[in-house]
Amino acid sequence: MLPLATTTPKTELDQRIALFQQQLADAALDGALILQNTDLYYLAGTIQQAHLYVPVSGAPVLMVRKSLARARAESSLADIVALKSPRQITAILEGLGHPPPKRLGMELDVIPASLYLQYTRLFEGIDLVDISPGLRWVRAVKSDHELALMREAARQADAVAGTVKDIIREGMTEVELAGRVEAEARRRGHQGIVRMRMWGGELFYGHLLAGPPATVPSFLASPTGGTGVSPAVAQGAGFARIKPGEPILLDYVFAWQGYIADHTRIFALGGLPSDLLEAHQAMLDLQEVIRDRGRPGVPAGDLYDTAVSWAAGHGWGEWFMGADDQRIRFIGHGVGLELDEYPFLAKGQDMPLVEGMTIALEPKLIIPGKGVVGIENTHVVTAEGLETLTCFDQAVQIIG
């Protein structure tokens, strides 16, 4: 039986609000106005059409346009009121005892320019400041409640991977196989939506790619791209047919009650050439190096440097995380409510790892003319290194 859907506990929201208010205080802000769906869900437990005002001290106010009844059912916040127009915000806040802020935080990394201009007119004389880095830092360290949801997402990701052997057939297209795998994920409660924060970032479940077409690059900040079904999508599964002796990459996200587990496994019909098996094993070996070194206090960029140096020193540098100028400059990324959370295990990143951060580590080799091999698992940072949450067999899965 699948676990039942849950609302976010009041103690959880209280803790998140308190941590965020510390960020507001550190930035000398009087409060923040939150609009983006993911941040609303994190701080209020609902993504109804709303504005969430978080003062630097005191109780937050959720002002809801649609649906007020659902917001009150889903969120444990005390002050949840109706909002017909953003022009009412100042009056609502003053009526609840909140003085007009002089410095107001907003999510300026994701708010459209037209909305930003609207709020500069609405809050004339108020200094609008980007609070996104502070909020993303708070979100990067997961609570026990969040880790429980991510462990379930990881369990479901493993279960989906376990069904692939029974679905793959020679001659079927990538997109046909993808549809059948996605149906299995959906049956298990996958929410369907995979949220990304970056501008232009979008993903539908993930990448299912076979053989040489898997090496086709795309616009997405990912080591893999794929042809997709048309230039309108330009990534992911296409109409290439599954053939024996080629690596089949299943790089899928399972999103469970908001939280994400990212997961890659390699399958093959009949086997793979020895050089591809060797390459895959090399990425498993590299993963273990990073898992051991990924401890609290280590700068995220140091892990990237370690991975690049290791790959080059073992003869895999030419294809590591991409070929030629298409190579990406990271080997992992934070995951949680979004696929691209802090920290980024990327070149030059000095953010230190903190116990409780959750990271998708994805060492891969993109070998032109042959395909993609490698691994991706979701991990949590512990004092002893990275604890792996996704546990399905990491060896190449040979079918037939």
Report on the structure:
Helix content is about 30%, strand content about 20%. The chain has helices at about 10-25, 35-45, 70-75, 90-95, 115-120, 130-140, 145-165, 175-185, 275-295, 300-315, and strands spanning about 30-35, 50-55, 60-65, 80, 105, 125-130, 205-210, 250-255, 260-270, 330-335, 340-345, 360, 365, 370-375, 375-380, 385-390, 395-400. It has 2 domains: about 10-140, 3-Layer(aba) Sandwich (Creatine Amidinohydrolase, Chain A, domain 1), CATH 3.40.350; about 140-400, Creatinase/methionine aminopeptidase superfamily (Creatine Amidinohydrolase), CATH 3.90.230.10. Helix 1 packs across helix 6 (about 130-140) and helix 9 packs antiparallel against helix 10. It is of the alpha+beta class and about 400 residues long. A hairpin with a 5-residue loop joins strand 2 and strand 3.
Task: Explain the layout of strands and helices.
Layout: H1 10-26, E1 31-34, H2 37-44, E2 49-55, E3 61-66, H3 68-74, E4 79-82, H4 89-95, E5 103-106, H5 113-122, E6 127-130, H6 132-140, H7 144-163, H8 174-187, E7 206-210, E8 248-256, E9 259-269, H9 274-293, H10 300-313, E10 330-334, E11 341-346, E12 358-361, E13 364-367, E14 371-374, E15 377-382, E16 385-388, E17 397-399
Parallel strand pairs: 1-5, 3-4, 5-6, 9-17
Antiparallel strand pairs: 1-2, 2-3, 7-8, 8-9, 10-11, 10-12, 12-15, 13-14, 15-16
Helix pairs in contact: 1-6, 9-10
